Amino acid sequence: xxxxxxxxxxxxxxxxxxxxxxxxxxxxxxxxAEAETITASPTCEERTIPAGxxxxxxxxxxxxxxxxxxxxLANRLxxxxxxxxxxxxxxxxxxSAVVPGxxxxxxxxxxDPRVRLLQAHFRQSRVVPPxxxxxxxxxxxxxxxxxxxxxxxxxxxxxxxxxxVCIPTVTTPQExxxxxxxxxxx
Length: 186
Description:
By secondary structure, the chain is an alpha/beta fold. It has a domain at 44-168. It has helices at 8-32, 73-83, 113-119, and strands at 44-49, 54-55, 61-66, 87-93, 103-106, 125-128, 139-143, 157-158, 163-168. A 5-stranded mixed β-sheet has the order 4-3-7-5-6, with helices on one face. Helix 3 (113-119) links the parallel strand 5 (103-106) and strand 6. The longest helix has 25 residues, at 8-32. The chain starts with 7 loop residues before the first helix and ends in an 18-residue tail after the last strand.
């Protein structure tokens, strides 16, 4: 048989009611508060490379697409190109109807210095006009079943035209000001 304490029921009800009211007030305040917005900063900085200045791999972004039956080949090629200072682009499976033996570079202009620099890194490659949409700021590579490894590590190619390239910007986290609270670590 349980004994009810005459004070515990009203006190418990009052505490529960206060918790409920506080929860409703905090919830309403959160629901109607202004959202903190962050202005998007540019992910890259456009830079013009004048004719006559050398083009280096750190100015060339490369999208790599797998047109082989070997899983992960495009990713491995992208990593190897990054080790040679090329900028990483998209990596995925090819939707192009072009079937490369080793390497196909999809480009309208085979004399583009970025294309010539990238092509110099492959033992066997061909440049063909794209049959799928390609990025304006990256060179697109299709890798086929017969690809083995990269060729010579060419560091520069002479630039014969003014080129505009997009160099990725590096943003560093800023320390909170006196008005801001530090972000929670988690």
